[in-house]
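4.2 Preliminary Data

To establish feasibility before requesting continued support, the project team ran the inverse folding procedure on a target of 136 residues. The structure was first converted into the token representation described in Section 3, and no sequence information of any kind was made available to the design step. The complete token record follows.
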């Protein structure tokens, strides 16, 4: 009797495992407050230097330099950490998600829409942890 070839089990199209998690520093958009405050402070300090046209030049340079420094300080203080997670799907494809909260490497997940959740059926009794797209 010839052995009967069994059909391969169907691949879950929405199933995968977290392959890697990388923290990424993400700057929030600057509001301009830092640049304005830095420009004013730099202008005031620059105005304290020199006399005549030298004072005017120092005031302008102080305002420009202060505006730049104030902008940089604001960007650094408004930076948040998000997590870029690569998910290896059961069909072999690779998907990347960026989320505010990390999920441990090796965790089984199910893709749902633009996000994913921990696959509680594969995690045997674990509570589901949801990670949804937050437009980061």
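Position-by-position output of the design step:
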């Amino acid at each position: 009797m010839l052995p009967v070839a069994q059909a391969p089990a169907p691949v879950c199209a929405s199933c995968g495992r977290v392959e890697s998690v990388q923290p990424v520093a993400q700057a929030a958009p600057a509001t301009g407050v830092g640049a304005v405050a830095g420009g004013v402070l730099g202008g005031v300090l620059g105005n304290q230097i020199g006399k005549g046209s030298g004072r005017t030049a120092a005031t302008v340079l102080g305002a420009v330099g202060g505006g730049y420094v104030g902008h940089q300080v604001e960007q650094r203080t408004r930076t948040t950490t998000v997590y870029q997670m690569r998910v290896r799907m059961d069909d072999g494809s690779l998907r990347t998600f960026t989320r505010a909260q990390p999920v441990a490497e090796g965790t089984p997940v199910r893709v749902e829409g633009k996000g994913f959740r921990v696959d509680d059926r594969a995690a045997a009794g674990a509570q589901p942890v949801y990670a949804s797209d937050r437009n980061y």
